[in-house]
Design a protein that fits this description.
The protein is an alpha+beta fold and 129 residues long. Helices cover 26% and strands 38% of the residues. It has 4 helices and 5 strands, in the order H-E-E-H-E-H-H-E-E. A 5-stranded mixed beta barrel has the order 1-2-3-5-4. A hairpin with a 4-residue loop joins strand 1 and strand 2.
């Protein structure tokens, strides 16, 4: 009986640990929305938020991603782009959101807090064809 109780406690702790915060991430996928400032992009990062809060699935979240001089921007097939090219893909102009993968310069804990979703720096951005 002691063994069963012990196993129950261990399994419960494993389940609780597995369902909590996933922690910092290095990349995320979402949809490109718009170029805000000269080097800041608004990108849907709901998937990253949901990794850290699996119970919050109905709300969409936007991240502000900064493009630096070292950021690589390209399409899936390797065509190089710049921020001006992305402005032409703005969802408000095209009415068609483009999928995007963002590799961050540093691991970040992206969650429901708006401050965690601002000032992210991208090392690479890949726009879906």
């Amino acid at each position: 009986m002691q063994i069963i109780r012990y196993l129950f406690v261990v399994l419960t702790l494993c389940l609780i640990t597995g369902c909590t915060n996933a922690g910092p991430i290095k990349s995320f996928e979402g949809y490109f929305h718009t170029v805000e400032a000269s080097n800041t992009l608004r990108i849907d990062c709901s998937s990253a938020v949901q990794e850290n809060d699996p119970y919050d699935t109905d709300i969409g979240y936007m991240c502000k991603v900064e493009v630096t001089e070292n950021t690589i921007i390209e399409t899936e097939d390797g065509k190089k782009l710049n921020v001006n090219d992305l402005a032409e893909l703005d969802v408000e102009k095209t009415n068609t959101p483009k999928g995007v993968k963002v590799d961050l310069a540093e691991e970040q804990d992206i969650n429901t807090s708006s401050s965690s979703r601002e000032g992210l720096k991208a090392s690479k951005i890949v726009i879906s064809n």
